[in-house]
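User: For my dataset I need records formatted as: sequence, then structure tokens, nothing else. Please produce one.
Assistant:
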Amino acid sequence: MSDTLECQKRAENTKPNALRREGLIPAVLYGHNGSESVSLTIHAKTLDTLLRHAKVNKTVIDLNIPDISWNGKTVIQELQVHPWRRTPYHVSFFAVQNPE
């Protein structure tokens, strides 16, 4: 099963805690263009819904980033959770190659 998630490119000079106060979770995408990475934001509610059934390094997620005209298959590489609130704090995605 593949899930679709839409992210936005993170604006430069934005602070992670300010984003979290706005209901956004900082994220990063690796492997989409060689060793280049891109900073992203995801709506917290969207991520919560996805995490109900997505597993780290197991669930393939179709990631769509309209700001840079990129979409592709990814997996959640790392999920950081707030120590006592148990809410997502940061998420890292890794692009996977399509087996063709």
